Amino acid sequence: TSTCQLTSHILNKNGLLNGSLGTLGFETPSGIVSTGFTTPESIDVHQMLSTLCNGGIKNAVMEVSSHALALHRMDDVDINTAIFTNLTSEHLDFHGNMDTYFSEKMKLFKGLNDTDIAIINIDDKYAKKMLNGCNSKILTFGFDKSAYIHPISCHYDYDKMSIEFSINKKKYIVYWSFASDV
Questions:
Q1: 77: three-class secondary structure by DSSP
Q2: Please, which residues have CB within 8 angstroms of residue 108's CB and are 6 or more apart in sequence?
Q3: 92-135 residue pLDDT tens
Q4: Beta strands in 15-80 (DSSP E)
Q5: 156-166 residue pLDDT tens
Q6: Residue 180: its pLDDT value, please?
Q7: pLDDT of residue 176 exceeding 90
Q8: How buried is 139 (Cβ within 10 angstroms: 0-12 exposed, 13-18 middle, 19+ buried)?
Q9: What beta strand segments (E) does 3-148 contain?
Q10: Cα 131 to the center of its chain, rounded Å
Q11: In whole angstroms, what is the distance from residue 56 CA to residue 173 CA?
Q12: Which end of the chain, C or N, has fewer beta carbons within 10 A?
């Protein structure tokens, strides 16, 4: 949910209007509607994406649940970028075991083609299997210094913070001032 919301916010702040669909609901530039599911039924997903397209919105940020992948709710949805954050034991009631859970998540990444992008957290214990199963371009992130994007240092104070990080071995610094929302 956090990754979906942050990605949507970053796109919007950079002039790339988008809709988002996930645990919080279906959000468009004109508002948000609860859907009841992280990833609704396939007919609803297609209708929501069609609504965005008909409104001139070219970007959609979606939370795609492992349940939705297992139940074919994402069939015929063309994904061009997928992000793998982590895999925990939270959905074993549905999947039964971690291997099945991983296989369902992997469907999203196996659906990417060689011009698409998989963004993978290399700190997760399933990252290596995820990397080996992708046929797309790959960007990695994490605390591991071999990641394409990784933090170098963080400094926190009462009302501000700065983070120095590396993207493809080039250093960047981001500053936040909580008092003035800079």
A1: coil
A2: 64, 69, 74, 79, 82
A3: 888 899 999 999 999 999 999 999 999 999 999 999 999 999 99
A4: 18-22, 25-28, 31-33, 59-62
A5: 998 999 999 99
A6: 59
A7: no
A8: middle
A9: 18-22, 25-28, 31-33, 59-62, 81-84, 117-121, 137-141
A10: 16
A11: 34
A12: C
Residue 135's φ and ψ, nearest 5 degrees, are -110, 5
Residue holding tokens 């988008």?
A: 18
The residue that leads in pLDDT, 33 or 182, is 33
Residues 116 and 131: their CA atoms lie apart, in Å, by 14
How many whole angstroms separate alpha carbon 4 and alpha carbon 60? 10
Q: Are the C-beta atoms of residues 69 and 108 closer than 8 Å to each other?
A: yes
Q: Which two tokens stand for residue 58?
A: 């070219």
Whether 177 shows a pLDDT value over 90: the answer reads no
99 φ, ψ to 5°? -65, -45
In whole angstroms, what is the distance from residue 80 CA to residue 116 CA? 5
What confidence score (pLDDT) does residue 182 get? Answer: 47
Residue-wise over 109-135: b if at least 16 C-beta within 10 A, else e? bebbeeebbbbbbbebebbeebeeebe
Please compute Rg for the chain using Cα positions: 18
**Which stretch of DSSP H or E encloses residue 162?**
strand 160-167
Rounded distance between C-alpha atoms, residue 157 and residue 52, angstroms: 41
Helix, strand or coil for residue 65? coil
